[in-house]
Write the structure tokens for this entry.
Amino acid sequence: MKHKHLGKSDIKVSPIAFGAWAIGGWMWGGAEETAAVRAIRTAFDLGITTIDTAPVYGFGKSEELVGRAMEGVARDKYQILTKFGMNWETPEGEFYFDSKDNDGNPIKIYKFASHKQIYKEIEDSLKRLKTDYVDLLQIHWPDNTTPISETMSALKDLIKEGKIRAAGVCNYSAAQVEEALKTLDIVSNQVPYSMINRGIEADVVPQALDKDLSIIPYSPLQRGLLTGKIKPGHKFNDGDTREGNRFYTPENIDRTDKLLEKIRPIADGHNASLAQLVLNWTTRQPAMDCVLAGARNEQQVQDNVKALSFELSPEELQQIAQAIGEFKLAE
């Protein structure tokens, strides 16, 4: 598996990373946790050496499982990408949303990225991850209550202290990235991107190419819509947050299904699933140096790894580009 550099840094990452948000689920039991640990180790054994997590995924649970899974593995053999700035302990920062803690109790989440908060969070993360440094530390969401310069200055200090190797941002606009670069040479921007959600191509991707930044795309399968398993007439379970989302309206499910039928022959030609074709295609897009793919168990990991087992020809890439170009999301 050919690794790529994150931006201008010396950090090499696998083209697909283990997205550890799924393993931080609420109120998990021992069996699920054991499966998650096995999934992380299976990913590593198969060449996915990069793990992306965050404190807020299960309120520490995801980071703890990553730390447990990688205990005993030489630290320089894998890369940890984690985040900060989602505060659930004190009512400080910019209110973001209401949630529930691991016991099902109501809890409020705030976006908070002050210098003091970052230092507290990195120490907590290092303990949970059972390591003394993080390869990439990223602000999880922009915090309008804290100047970007203050946040970036804290990250610069952490780099000097050796607690992080490099810094990045998540969900930053091109303008916010420009502001961050005035204080610190960040190396990446983690943003949503998929075949049917390509808005960042207008400004974020060109900026990344111009500034030599890496894009770390998340939701490349559009929360399952691009797997081909969600068909017109699909009924969502109670509480499924996808219902009502603009990508999941009946009209857009139908349009996405038609897009997938156009590219299905390419997947079949490589003995691959639609999800594997979509992940493969995403790794081939400009600046997309580390694509996040979530997994809860070993089988899902193996499916993700197979996405890198074939190479799309220029003709196939052109066919996919044409199909995508004909797709339009209904408003």
Notes: The first strand starts at residue 4 and ends at 5. Residues 250-269 form the longest helix (20 residues). The mean pLDDT is 94.
